[in-house]
Amino acid sequence: MSDGGPSSGGNDRELFAARRSSRGRLELDELLPAVAVGDQQAYEAVYDQASGWVLGVVRKVLRDPAQAEEVMQEVLLEIWRTASRFDPMQGSGVAWVMTMAHRRAVDRVRSERSHTTRELRAATATIDYDEVIEAVEASLDRERVQRCLTSLTVLQRECVGLAYYSGYTYREVAELLEVPAGTVKTRMRDGLIRLRDCLGVS
Amino acid sequence: MTTSDDFEPHTLAGPFAMDAVTADERASFIGHLGDCAQCRDDVREMREATARLGIAAAVRPRPELREQTIKAALQISQLAPEIPGQAAAAAESERVADAVRRPAEAKVSVLRQLAGRIRPNKTLTMITLTAAALIIGLVGGFGLLANDMTVQLHHSQQQDHLIDTVLSARDVVMLTARVSTGGDATIVMSHREHRLVFSAHGLAALPGGQAYELWLMGPAGERPAGMLRPDPGGMAGPAVVSGLAPGDMIGLTIEPARGAAHPTSALIVVIGSHR
Fold this sequence. Notes:
The structure holds two protein chains of two kinds. Chain A contains nine helices and no strands. Chain A is mainly α. Chain B is α+β, with helices and mostly antiparallel strands. In chain B, the strands form two sheets. Chain B has a four-stranded antiparallel β-sheet with strand order 1-2-3-6. Chain B has a four-stranded antiparallel β-sheet with strand order 5-4-7-8. In chain B, strand 1 (173-178) and strand 2 (184-190) form a beta hairpin. Chain B is globular, with a radius of gyration of 20 Å. Chain B starts with 12 loop residues before the first helix and ends with a strand. Chains A and B meet through helix 3, helix 4, helix 5, helix 6 and helix 7 of A and helix 1, helix 3, helix 4, helix 5 and helix 6 of B.
């Protein structure tokens, strides 16, 4: 952007439309500040870009399509409401949105798990990260993620998968995998760092 | 609650980045983030990676949801930009993210009714606010103050929703205290909402280069909670402070105008409940 703050003029409209592609990162970073000042066009572009990502991760964690839709909508409303809090210095727009989505899904699934009796043991200790790949659109992102996941050690992958895709705390993961909690913490960290390096994001 | 003895902040960066921590651990780690630049960088980078894990699971939402969601969003007021205590901007944004994810729940359960309906009645919100403030006022014996506060509250539409969630929380508490350098401070807080609303009147004018700074202080550590800029009449707030952790008190100091990471002068007021 060459000049000043975002406006909601026709130029922006074309700009946003033109940028609607699958690359993501830059676009959200630019769209969110416009959303923060109430730009409806920008918000629609954010919806088009991020709703599928949000729904995907939420559904993965919740495993209930109806609830997942509800939470997806909650997250999209939160994006609208709190866009002014997005700070590109603290990470990409993609990370901001996905952190919000994942956290909300995790909160929901945990409050449900605490209602039912602990079904920890019933949960599979293997990650079905292959199942993740069932999603609608083939994307480069997905292939890369899958490839990078296979570059982790088995334990790292299990730790990351159970935490991220199933919403377990590291202590629960430790219990599930029957390894010390301290080990799980480090494997999560190491796994994520390896993933980060493999994906080339930082 | 998790014991704080076995809380080793640094090692929690990985689990924290994936939300693989309990609410208590999350709050503690957020407190820690304010002091640990390395941890902030770690979390930031790991989240770029976890975001891709999420994206890899993408599915296409039903097309009907698009209009419904966008319509509903346009009826919700947005948070105004906020300059958090700069020294801990990252921690602050974590706190906002942490606190912010709860209150929308009620709102979203009415999402379906909202979509395709008229704008929610502003007056109704006001009445609710007023009623809530009055009840607190009566219970606490601060009727006048609460009324005052309600009037102030009306001025900050952007904060309506946040303030609303605090005022309508079941465990809401209102406390007032004298500021040692002049004036009175009032907080309305909810531990359930992890948030409080701070306001003050009669604050002394400060020389240029100095400003009031709010602090959250408690077992989770001491965290900057924003700068306070009184108007010429000495009125300040209402300011919403998020990230209230168990046992936290709110304090006020006079600092260099650009803010400080830790209090560098004596507290001029401390308010909090003993829980």
